[in-house]
Structure formats: structure tokens, C-alpha cells
Amino acid sequence: xxxxxxxxxxxxxxxxxxxxxxxxxxxxxxxxxxxxxxxxxxxxxxxxxxxxxxxxxxxxxxxxxxxxxxxxxxxxxxxxxxxxxxxxxxxxxxxxxxxxxxxxxxxxxxxxxxxxxxxxxxxxxxxxxxxxxxxxxxxxxxxxxxxxxxxxxxxxxxxxxxxxxxxxxxxxxxxxxxxxxxxxxxxxxxxxxxxxxxxxxxxxxxxxxxxxxxxxxxxxxxxxxxxxxxxxxxxxxxxxxxxxxxxxxxxxxxxxxxxxxxxxxxxxxxxxxxxxxxxxxxxxxxxxxxxxxxxxxxxxxxxxxxxxxxxxxxxxxxxxxxxxxxxxxxxxxxxxxxxxxxxxxxxxxxxxxxxxxxxxxxxxxxxxxxxxxxxxxxxxxxxxxxxxxxxxxxxxxxxxxxxxxxxxxxxxxxxxxxxxxxxxxxxxxxxxxxxxxxx
Length: 439
Ligand code: GDP
Ligand code: MG
What we know:
By secondary structure, this protein is an alpha/beta fold. The protein is 58% helix and 8% strand. A hairpin with a 7-residue loop joins strand 6 and strand 7 (277-279). The chain binds guanosine-5'-diphosphate (GDP) and magnesium ion. Residues 95-242 form the AAA+ ATPase domain.
């Protein structure tokens, strides 16, 4: 795949914006990567259509070519689509909570039930395991063995009982034993089947689970879609567990499941051991689905380089005391993105000393909001030339952002101080040759 990508990239070097043609080309590679990751083709089409719209007209970063940039945009979209951050379990309401594990035979329900119990116990909860697969005697034993190994209570199900009775009796027992989360391991079939579905629906009505997790084998990318659809239609899934991600599966199933059912993957199975359960991270899976880690790093670096270039320009302005409220606002916005002022100062040549001087640079969000709203109330002219701001302008600015004149005054004073300090720190052109930045 890399080779193929590289040849595409070569063709595009030198183009400045993303247009119909180069986006198309970049997306061709993405489409192949998605299909290779076994994402359902309908999902692929829907997704690439969305991305195409977002790409068009964007400027190409220095140091990368259009196709590479398309891939980065695709990656970010993928992360968003997969849920952005991590989506944890949503356990609320009456205790004990109930988590029902559903899915095809062999998908990893029993193993994941035990893993989840172990995970929840680490979260200071008291789990209770319920083997409700009465069709295979070995399935009950399998969960009992795991429960015993973990020292977690489990219901003494037998193959003679019916699953709904097991569920209700187990729930009562869990409450008696003061457990606060019941995990139901249900039966699976090789294919979606009416009888099993009805049984699962009956169990759902009996216990009203907070979570119904669809357990899917990561290797079954395409098939996962129809199966997930069927389970979702009958049961209303609340999340998914993607198992066997320790294999060579790229995780396309995660994307397919999310797109088709709207439910997020909440956990990932990374091996056969009980501890091999991880909370789902969309960015990791997105990178894996695309299998283009190098490209992503490259584009991230290019983005950092642009900031570096801007930083040099900023340093020049500081040196000449030309740093204005526009620059200040830009930096402030960036600061929010990067999370700290320190991150920005590190990028600006010569600012290391200032950083030491200022000590703790953490500015609370609320304060930043106030500052930004004052700056927003200024006119463009005022932002570029703070000296213009006389008392009557101050009054207008304060009125515009609903603050006191004193607040505006304070900001302008500290800004003037900061500008002086910057100029001094940067040498202010006194020593050193013009145009050269102090290191
Ligand atoms: P069930 O039929 O849905 O209950 O599936 P099981 O829990 O019995 O799992 C089927 C097989 O998959 C077993 O051999 C498990 O050890 C294996 N398995 C489950 N989860 C994972 C995983 O995350 N990684 C690997 N490598 N194997 C797994
Ligand atoms: Mg099982």
C-alpha cells in the first residue's frame, strides 16, 4: 500500500489547494485502505462522500502534498465518526445495573463478560456473572471457571433452566449478595435467528438492562454490519465490544457498526487473557483502519512547522514591539488548543527566559474568556494599534462586552507591560544583527 501511496504523492507535489481532482486521487487510496480494513462498501462510499466535501478548497500545508493532506483529514473525520473521545459505560438508575452481552457464537461474549467483570471490579464495583447460554453445557462451565478464577460470584445456571428464568433468579441473587452490576452472558448462534432474538428480547424485558453490548469479532468486518443491524433492530444496542483486535484485523468493523447502528464501540478485546480488555480509543483505531501511520505523522509535523514559521514572525514583531491585540488573540486561541501558554512559548525563539520568569503560566479558562471578549469588542484598528484606545473608546469597549471600564483598563495596562517585557527579552534590536533571531 505504501508504494502505491508514494507514487500518488509524487504526482501531487507542488499543488497549492485541494481541488476536485487531487481530492479524488487522495480518496482513492483511502477507499482502498478502508476496503482492505474490511469496512462495508456502502459505509465506505458514504464516508468518502462526506470527506470529499470537507476537503475541497482547503489549502495545502507546506511540506506535504494534497493526497497526504486528504488522508489526514480523513483520519480526523474517522476519529470524529468513531465517537471522538472514549465513550464509557452508561450505568445509571436502579442498582444492581444490568449489562447484557449479545452477539454471534464465537464472537467472544463469554470471554468478554469475564473481562468486563474484572474491569468493573477494578473500578470499585461489585460484579456478578450470569451464564445464560443453556444450549451448550460447556458455555456455562466456561464462565463458571472464569468466575472462580477471578473470585467473582456467578449464578448456578443449569442447562435445564430457561434463560429468562435464569436472568430473573440471578438478578435476585445478585441483589441479595449486594452486588451492584450484573453481567449477562447470553447464547449465540452461527447466524442471526428468530428464536434466539425472541429469547433475547424476553430477557431484555425481564431485566431492562442499562447496557446491551454487541460483541463482534474484529475479523468479521463486512458481516458485522448485517448482524449488528439485526441485533440493533430487535434489541436497541447501547454499545459494542470489538474482540480479537490482537490479531491482524484492521478494525474496519468498528466503523461499520458505528455507521450502521449509531452505537459506539466501548471496549476492545486485545487477547485471550482476562486482563486483555481495553477502553476503546477512536484515534488508535482510526490510525489502524487507515494503516497510514507515517502519513499522519508527516502531516502533523508539517502542521507544527507552520506554527514554527508563524512563531518566527511573531518573534520579529515582539522584538519591534509591534505585537498587537490581534496577535495576542491569535496566540490565546492557539493556547486553548494546545492547552498551555508554555507550549506556545516553547515554539517562539528566545522566549525560554520569559517562561522561567513568569513561573506558573496557567491561565484559567474563565479569565481567558473575559480577555477574549474584551479583545473582540475592539475595532480592527484598535486591535492593531492599542495606543488609539482613549477613555471614550475604553468606555465603548467595556459596554460592548458587558464589562467595567476598569477591566478594559487592566487588560490594556498588562498588555503594555507584556509588550515592554517582550521587547526587552528579545533584545529589542539593541544587540544582534537585524533579521536574526536570538536563539
Ligand atoms: P462466545 O461464543 O461469544 O461466548 O465466545 P467466547 O468468549 O467463547 O470466545 C471464542 C474464542 O475467542 C475463545 O477461544 C476466546 O479465547 C477467543 N477470544 C475472545 N476474545 C478474544 C480476544 O480479544 N483476543 C483473542 N486472541 N481471542 C479472543
Ligand atoms: Mg459463550
